[in-house]
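task queued by scheduler; priority normal; single chain, no ligands, no partner chains; default sampling; output format set to structure tokens
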Amino acid sequence: MSVFNALQQQAFNLARKALRIGSNFAHPVSDDRAGEPDYLNTDQENTNTLLSQKQRLPHVEEWGAQMPTTTFIDPETGLLTTKTESAAPLDEGTSIYDLYADRAARMGDDPLYTYKENDKWVTKTANQFLQEVRDAAKGLMHYGLRKGDAVALMCKTSYEWDVTDAAVMACGGVLATIYDTDSAEQIRNIVNNSDSRFLIVETTDMRDKADGAIEECPSLERIICIETGGLAELQAFGYAVSDDELDARIDSVKKTDLCSIVYTSGSTAAPKGVEMTHEHYCTTALNLPVYLPNLLSEKDGSVLLFLPQAHSFARAINYIVVASTLRIYIAQGIPTLISDLQVAKPTVMIVVPRVLEKVYNAASQKAGHGAKGLAFQGAVVTAQQYMKEVQEFGDAKALTKARRTAYDPLVYRPLRQALGGRARWIVAGGAPLDPELLSFFRGAGVPVYEGYGLTETTAPCAFTPIGVPFREGSVGIAFPAFTLRIASDGEVQIKGTCVFHKYHKNDEATETSFTKDGWYATGDLGRIDDDGMLYITGRKKDLIITAGGKNVAPGPIEEMIKRCELVSQALVLGDKRPFISALVTLDEETLRNWLKLKGLDATMSMEEAANNAVVRAEVQKFIDLANEGVSRAESVRKFIILPEEFTQENGLMTASMKIIRPRVIKRYTTLLNTQMYTTRKK
């Protein structure tokens, strides 16, 4: 090492010491972070025993307006339970259409939706939107849509999505949601399962995917393409139906009527649809503005929607905002998110963790590895230390506050400006958020809060409202109208007005999803502290949730890969990861014969075979077949062939020949972090 390099390294080390950056500093998020196994660590999670909590409970906190949260031990079950009260019950005739009608009555001439059309931002008032909805609803009635009939919708989050959804709701229809990235097979599965009479698609490409569906789906009568004027034509036909006829249909809709079937599986197996009612969505929508009046009654407040509304999370948020006074901006998509943020300048944002990871990674890469990079690392450590002290002592120490203030113009303020500069409440959901990343953002003055929910609970069943004390790793308290409990095995179980009643045409799945006393069994493991804060500690089932929030059932994909004669086992991974991947093992006996037939060296080692280009090409064929029946978000992007199988001997398989997923992940953590999920170089 030269004298210059030695001096440079010495200066670098001194700077790290001065900035209190440890030698083991690691960014709180990156594409190659370690994948921890998703199961409950009993030793860590049982620190607050039920016995000690009994002595401190019940405990009541009023975090929101006149809706107290009570944490207690249920005298009947002996289980730790927490609940947040609800606003008054809905009238029997309340429907989703009423949310829009009420918004028009309150703020008819004020902006409701702003979106990009032909490269220009367009704004529609609540009155304009309601009229377009009524025209489309009358058009659906003219086409013969009856109350209770299903309409399948395949469309990205857009103004047209909201018009179509509200129109179907107005005439008592049932909306079956299809992701805009779903495959042709998934389209047909959903249309058939929902018995949809109409299929509305956004683009001609989507229409091409649906080509032939009318012949293959017995219930399907008509395909409407928005891009070629289908929605405008529908609205034009509304002239044939009177306002009185539409109003009579609207009045016939009850809160308990089925309004949507939301599909969660995303696999090639028979789709599993969650039945949602008007009451589910309206209760969620009307409770939150009452609970958070200061945040959701701002006349100049706004929200930017960009998550897919085919998912209950974004759809529920849309309804909540309609019930508030906030203005809704609709983003063009993830690629334009940063520029859209500068237009919308949202006070409220709903994100998945992957978006926050991208924001962090962009800031880190921009800082680089020199002096700016060192300053960025110091800012990360300071922000995290600030939140640690806030959690432990109620306030940060003077020195930490001073450091935080010093970093603000260099690191923290640019982050806040990148998110529009006005954010007051950024809610992350859909997938777990790294607690260290959350601490950084909160310490940097970026108001990120975590929530928890499922399609089966109309999205949010736990959330972190403004004013709740910071608890690292917590997803918050029970959402209004929900009761949460921890079962004896650590499972999070839920009751409430907004919990679904059944899966569509799937009595078996419905029965296994509820306990004998009627609680929804989530399959997630967790704990609740004395303040009613919920912590998710793992998953009972193998359902994968990617970092982008996409639910992926690995079974059907694994089955397709295993159809390759060379493959003995396949394990699909991707929980909390940026994409889906697979670990594959080879059947040695079959492999030897196959190599001989191909004129290859049949005596090569398993390590050589795992890396052989011809072997990999053969496995790739079946990876491609598996990918054909799923969306891109569910597709296997990368795979590694292992030189050994999962066996009882190496501890990776049970006696009943089931692969122990957490142990496989733990065993191959280094491989996954260094070869499967690596930082993308620019």
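post-processing summary
- The first strand starts at residue 59 and ends at 61.
- Residues 354 and 548 are 5 Å apart (CA to CA).
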